[in-house]
Design brief:
The structure is a homodimer of 560-residue chains.
Chain A lengths: L1 H23 L4 H4 L3 H24 L8 E2 L3 E7 L8 E7 L14 E20 L8 E8 L2 H5 L16 E6 L4 E4 L4 E12 L6 E10 L16 H17 L14 E2 H12 L5 H13 L10 E3 L5 E2 L5 H5 L1 H12 L2 H19 L27 H22 L8 H16 E2 L4 E2 L9 H9 L5 H13 L9 H13 L3 H17 L35 H7 L3
Antiparallel strand pairs in A: 1-9, 2-3, 2-4, 4-7, 4-8, 4-9, 5-6, 5-8, 10-11, 11-12, 13-14
Chain lengths: 560, 560
């Protein structure tokens, strides 16, 4: 026993030493370039500005637009294993009028179909059929983005995220008649209504179902787009619905679940927004919230909660941290709002400190082991190469920001550092035999690595084309799981000059969701794996997820 | 088959004839006295005034008083079969602080004890313990007036009233921290809180539990009372709590269940109110609502719903209809508000039409079979004698109202009619051998019949004393089930001059509830029958029921 304890102690000791070396990172490129003074100067500015950033976020609070939408029909959900998405199909069961002004009793239920996905407040009226209703009406509501949510039971859910995200309510209504607006917001196309309890002798009925939609997207400002074909029209429409329903008082990741601002998700939403609804203030507010809730070390929030007041979420993702500068650059280029970009500049520079900490003096990113590296919801993915590329991507964005803001002298170290990191990538992560980038000790081949390396401009144009062509043929490559990474594949194909290939890839992947009945694009989608979930529970997946809305970005940006 | 059908037809035919004769009641005392013109004249006035009555009800809308009450402890409920009321006792399990600012997880639960019964809104705050809470918090609340409601499961409830009256809620709270005020009103002493679901990794906690009480009783106006002993003090205190918690924007029957204005219940509440909180406007409003929602035949509402706008309930109770005039008379005598009494006079007179319809030309009440006769929650009780007495009681009240309002000439028929009905009672319903009133074809003996006959003054003082003494000895008599009828027994004992007996009866019956832990008096109580329920489900019984609040009336009215 004693020996075993001692050996455990030794292991712990070694791990501690390794961790300390990791945290101190005395051999990081940041130290080699002696950047401490630069980052300290930015930290001072961040501390001076943090409060005003939150004030500016508040000032940019968007007005939410409302529309009243009525359900289009009553549907039933029927088991359709192996054919319909997740084994459920909806079948029209009647007109909405068939459930209005009719007596209902405990156990009765029906499903409203609103015909499309909406984010908003569900409203309905209760009426008495003959005599006044003499007991409260107890109702259950289940809101579904996809048929499975109103088909399968929530009772067996045992995923890794809280069951509280599943959109159901038990509501007791004391007074009949009355119009009821459920106070919580839901994201849904389908609403299953079930009568749990009601007066034994006095019948009540329903009327006037509707959703009061909520979005900070303004349809009047939507830029025109002429699709070349029906599929393009569909891809654009579903993208817009997805984006619209995630545009609230920040860019939310998904209006059903999380319902909050994530930096990496914001970047893609903002890109789609610039070519569609052009709500620059919403991007500005979102950036200011992430900036204003940066921690005392100056690290931007990976995600932030808005209410009751903006606060930093507990998670930090290294690649999201790196993507702050690119997101700010996109905003500046789209809006030409130099004031905001100047204001947030110190934070963009400061983020480099956190990512460069883990780039060694040879210019190679080494996974520190104590960071959440995201890239994609794929636990098998080795993320070294992608992170390495994203850091280069970030450095280049800061450099470009410096040019636009006339601050090049502040980041004069970047070109040499980019060059060093590119060399390190080619030396360590490029397999010239395969014509592909590899990642990690096991030299893993993935779509993620190729895409990010191409987007980071590590390669020549020729190499970029080569690796994007090679990865297609490399059947053992780790493939993307989320539309978030699929986006970067399409972007990389575009970057590599494969316009047609990119469009075909997009048509194929996002088009498949449409073929499966998607009204909005899903958080996670791997064709043929309908029940795949990063949370071990497909019911908890978000089926209107903003990082999936970028077909509209590609269609409207790359028109030829 | 044909023969059988024919015989059924014959039976139906006979029943129809009987019913028609019943409905036409050509032999009713009303016709004998040729009262049609009188009732027509009143009907005209009712139709003219009905709208203004509802306006006056609105004008008398009381202000609700609030108090913030904090829970006094955390309790557990423990099985205590055969000893504690309904087999459940509460045991202090800790201070309220023991559940505040501590992390909670799904499945955790505790019971708050507010130390007394309150009607109001339940409030609490949620806080995050360390990191921001990243998922909605799903909570279950069960509100209990008595320990059984937080001890037994609601799931097996199968009573005859809707399960929706059971006070439980499932609530989803999106934002933490925040203070939550549940929008529905509850009546409770105990609150069971259970965490259904919450963030898997981020802990939340509770703080600041409280109830914001609601009552139109004003403690500042409470008349003083000096109890003679501890039991009197207890009876008065529990009566006051019961009355207070039922005094809302009308006199509700029970703040947990029904939550509405019933005429018969109002009468007793008003009597208790006149000697305690003296909220005359609340009686006025209640009377005007019942009057303003009278039906097109001029029948006052037996019960009325207040919201969204006052409306007549579907039920009509004959004895309650008869009790409108006595209730108005009590109000006039207590408040001296002749304006209201004059205004409602036509309705008081008009109610006689509906009750006299069923009094035959010999002056005897005959159960028409198509009315709800209440008297008490006792299905075995024959109600003829009680109803007969209540009609006399009503006639006398109209007569007394006429005197006070100087309208005797309008109801000059009453004295002779009272005399005729008294004679009919003595001839048909008095058993001189037993010295007791009997009721119905089976000559049933009950406490109800004796009490109401005495209250109606059918007997001489001597006879009254005799029958109240005899009923005590008649062990097979139908006994009261509800405090509503027990009230009338006590009142009859007082009327018969048995002051001490009346007080002892009251101490014994209501005192037993106190001994069993009642914070407020119960809707139904038969000693030894803890689970008795008119609705086949003790969990649905109201345990703060206004018709049970009258010990304070007796204590304060009969001081010597």
């Amino acid at each position: 026993m004693i020996k075993k304890q001692n050996s455990i102690k030794l292991v712990v000791y070694i791990i501690c030493i390794l961790n300390v070396s990791c945290l101190v990172a005395s051999n990081s490129i940041k130290n080699a370039y002696e950047l401490d003074d630069i980052f300290s100067a930015q930290m001072e500015l961040i501390d001076q500005r943090r409060v005003s950033w939150l004030e500016k976020a508040e000032q940019a609070m968007p007005e939410l637009n409302h529309k009243i939408i009525k359900p289009v029909s009553i549907v039933s959900v029927e088991k359709d294993t192996g054919k319909s998405f997740q084994g459920w199909k909806t079948v029209k069961a009647g007109e909405v009028s068939s459930v209005c002004n009719k007596p209902f009793a405990p156990g009765d239920s029906f499903i409203l179909d609103f015909g499309d996905h909406y984010t908003g407040n569900f409203c309905f009226s209760l009426c008495s059929i003959d005599n006044p209703v003499d007991a409260p009406v107890r109702l259950e509501f289940i809101f579904g983005e996809v048929p499975a949510e109103v088909g399968d039971s929530f009772d067996t859910y045992c995923g890794s995220l809280s069951r509280s995200w599943l959109q159901d309510e038990i509501v007791n209504i004391d007074v009949v008649p009355q119009t009821v607006k459920l106070p919580r917001r839901y994201a849904f196309r389908y609403v299953k209504v079930r009568v749990v309890a009601s007066s034994v002798s006095r019948k009540f009925g329903f009327t006037d179902f509707e959703v009061e939609t909520l979005t900070s997207a303004n349809e009047d400002k939507l830029l025109p787009f002429t699709p070349k074909n029906e599929r393009q029209a569909e891809l654009d429409r579903v993208s817009l619905t997805t984006l619209r329903d995630c545009m609230q008082t920040v860019f939310e990741d998904g209006p059903k679940r999380d319902r909050r601002l994530w930096l990496g998700d914001l970047r893609l939403q903002a890109q789609a927004n610039y070519v569609t609804y052009q709500n620059y203030d919403l991007v500005k507010r979102s950036l200011y919230i992430l900036a204003g809730t940066s921690d005392k070390k100056g690290m931007v929030s990976t995600c932030a909660f808005e209410y009751p007041k903006p606060v930093r979420g507990g998670d930090s993702i290294l690649d999201y941290t790196a993507l702050f500068a690119p997101t700010l650059l996109d905003y500046l280029e789209a809006s030409n709002d130099k004031e905001t970009a100047n204001d947030l500049w110190p934070l963009a520079v400061k983020q480099l400190e956190f990512v460069l900490e883990h780039v060694n003096s040879d210019g190679l990113f080494i996974d520190p082991g104590n960071w959440w590296l995201f890239i994609d919801w794929n636990n098998d993915l080795d993320k070294q190469a992608s992170e390495h590329a994203i850091i280069i991507y970030s450095l280049k964005a800061v450099c470009r920001l410096a040019e636009l803001l006339d601050k090049k002298e502040q980041v004069s170290f970047i070109p040499a550092m980019v060059s060093s990191m590119k060399s390190a990538a080619i030396s360590n992560l490029w397999d010239s035999n395969l014509g592909l980038f590899v990642s990690g000790a096991n030299r893993q081949i993935s779509w993620a690595s190729q895409s990010w390396m191409v987007l980071a401009g590590v390669t020549s144009s020729e190499q970029a084309r080569m690796c994007m062509a090679n990865i297609e043929k490399y059947t053992d490559a780790q493939k993307p799981v989320t539309p978030y990474l699929h986006h970067h594949v399409v972007a990389a194909l575009m970057e590599a000059g494969y316009h047609e290939k990119a469009m075909a890839y997009m048509n194929n992947y996002w088009g498949k969701m449409i073929d499966l009945g998607a009204d909005t694009f899903w958080e996670v989608f791997v064709p043929g794996q309908d029940f795949l979930s990063p949370y071990n529970g497909y019911l908890i997946n978000s089926y209107c997820h903003a990082w999936s809305c970028t077909p509209t970005y590609f269609l409207r940006t790359y028109k030829n």
